[in-house]
Amino acid sequence: GGIVLKKQSNLSRLLSYAGVHKYFTYASWVLSGISALTALVPFWYIWKIINEALEVSPNFGSAANLTHYGIMAMTYAIISYLIYIGALLCSHLAAFRIAANMRIDITEHISKLPIGFADSFGSGKLRKIINDSTAATETYLAHQLPDKYAAMATPVGLLALLLVFDWRL
């Protein structure tokens, strides 16, 4: 047998442009997942509100915890948004670094090509291709990847909620 070289994934190639900033990307994935799970907690408190209201009905004045549950639902909703903002801050830090390093790498590569290469495109068109391509990469890394991890965490959290809820009320 010969030497088997593992093909580098597109994501790992992109992250190689991040240097140490790739850890911000990883942090954004974790924070995004935590945010998605935290965003489900208010539903648990809403369930508790409904459950308590049904237990004391029609004497709603004896429902002692409704305000507390409402405040907790709002608190967890706000916490979820704050964690998501942290996730996006991390993902943007890494994405901006990656896009900048890609532009530098591409520009250095083009500078080594024969002069006629750039003339065949025109400098404006070439610059637009570079900027558009790196901007698309930036969007993917800064928004779509963190959202992917939130989308993966949400069903897990929903399953946990289904196990906690007494759906019969």
From TrEMBL:
Coiled coil: none annotated. The chain crosses the membrane at residues 23-47, 67-94. It holds the Pfam family ABC_membrane. Keywords: Membrane, Transmembrane, Transmembrane helix. GO terms for cellular component: membrane. InterPro entries: ABC1_TM_dom, ABC1_TM_sf. GO terms for molecular function: ABC-type transporter activity; ATP binding. Residues 30-169 form the ABC transmembrane type-1 domain. This is ABC transmembrane type-1 domain-containing protein. The lineage of its organism: unclassified sequences, metagenomes, organismal metagenomes.
